[in-house]
Design goal:
66% helix
């Protein structure tokens, strides 16, 4: 199994979802997790959780609904869980 390409482990669908989850993670960390919920949310954790979950579920199921829901759950769990342990859990807006 090749690593990249349309038949590879990392294909165009994986890259699109990783980009969407990355942008969503940055906005979610500042706007929702830190400001509204007053919780730490790790950007690194959410990206690790969502990407690994997406790739594993893509290999196992190849169903877009399972991929989206599963990787979103991995995104939330990784972000909130590792936000407690990693240094990137808080976003500062410069108005401290």
């Amino acid at each position: 199994m090749p690593l990249f390409g349309t038949d590879g482990l990392v294909n165009h669908l994986t890259l699109i979802f990783v980009a969407v989850y990355a942008l969503g993670g940055l906005v979610f960390r500042k706007s929702v997790a830190n400001d509204l919920l007053d919780m730490k949310f790790s950007f690194i954790g959410c990206m690790i959780g969502s990407t690994l979950t997406f790739i594993i579920l893509d290999i196992l199921f190849e169903n877009i609904k399972v991929l989206v829901v599963g990787s979103l759950i991995g995104w939330l769990i990784g972000g909130f869980l590792l936000g407690l342990f990693l240094w990137d859990g808080e976003a500062s807006g410069g108005n401290e």
